[in-house]
Amino acid sequence: MSSLKMLPLLLLLHMQLSKAFLPPSQHKEEKNMKIVQNYLEKFYQLPKNRRQPTTENSDSVMVEKLKVMQRFFRLNVTGKPNEETLEMMQKPRCGVPDSKGFMLTPGSPKWEHNNLTYRIINNPQQLSKADVEAAIKKAFQVWSDASPLGFTVSEGKADIDIAFVQRVHGDNSPFDGPNGILAHAFQPGQGIGGDVHFDIEETWTSTSENYNLFLVAAHEIGHSLGLSHSSDPGALMYPNYAFSEPSTYLLPQDDINGIQAIYGPSDNPIQPTGPSAPTACDPRLTFDAITTFRGEILFFKDKYFWRRHPQLRRVDLNFISLFWPSLPSGIQAAYEDFERDLVFLFKGNKYWALNGYDIQQGYPKDISNYGFPSNVQAIDAAVSYRTKTYFFVNNQFWRYDNRRQSMEPGYPQSIASTFQGIKSRIDAVFQKNNFFFFFSGSRYYAFDLNGHRITRVGRSIQWLNCR
Ligand code: 7FY
Ligand code: CA
Ligand code: ZN
Ligand code: ZN
pTM of the predicted model, to two decimals? Predict the structure, then answer.
């Protein structure tokens, strides 16, 4: 299988050793650090060529990335590159193409007929036959919606055989037990061509728990149809698993472009379009929600967030689901409760409490807990300042007392009466250095909480280091 390649571990980057990773054997440790560095750069957006590798901050970034990686692989979350972590990093994974966007399988193999058949040979333990059928059907539908291809279940011989198998299973690509490789698929062709194998030792789910069968099946079917991996981190054909909500899943634009490059456009008179990663410096960019987060600032947009480091001013783009797998996309409001070291995120009438990378027990809860009237079913923006939390809804705001845990009397009030100069509805707000930074469309407004006036207006994207 051409897509099963070892990670190129030979890229030699100058790396000094940090205290946290001090070695029993200097030489071996240096080599291990390179493995960790390269792996995290490749799969976890660790910034490249960091100038001062021994500063506190670059270490803490690496530690955080390591924790995310360890959580992903269900290892002990230590933030240290221990033996099991290094072992996982050296397992063969899908290689990353260095071009932009989708890639066809080398030699451009494709099916010569558009009406393809599939057959599900067996079932894993954890999912019912009906759940497996539903997941696989939906995975095919993702591709048929975007192309002229159609898929039907076959009782007998089929183009695409789907099977749950373990370890050595006769195709020279043995599976590896839980985690690591989840599945693989063969490029279009006769016999084993197009077939999809799932590692039966994984925990297959129809939820956000690892690993969602629909999502992995949709990815593998992409290979069955002739697509290789994409370098677009938002693409279904990206080499790394990331959870997205199946019930509202839309095939990303990069994958639509890929499948249509092989089979042509869909027969549908309305051509499907799909989501693509927001571009940081698009002047039309607006934010869903913004909050401070333990000294950093998070800017939410769709299924992504940008994270800005205050001093280094470095900004990186991440998936919400990579950090908090059970959170939905499209977060609408967020604030940090500094006293309790919690971040609250809102979508519709639900909210979640995060302590770092952990979602607190008992969430999501209903926003009626805050004391909103029942006609408030969503919040535009929220921010906390000196034990009070401000909630913005349309042209009004509420003020909540964090200590008494109750809404203050006399609210809602009009935004314009208290925050003079804030005229339109706001998308997002956060607090820093006694300023509220309000975001509305492509602009932000810095509101001085001491002087009670706007002292600066700028373009929203300046916060992402764009001009
Ligand atoms: C996946 C694969 O397709 C291969 O041919 C060889 C190795 C693979 N790695 S995997 O099983 O860990 C895997 C990685 C990512 C499986 C699925 C996905 C995935 C990516 C994006 C969305 C959903 C799933
Ligand atoms: Ca496996
Ligand atoms: Zn196989
Ligand atoms: Zn793949």
Answer: 0.67
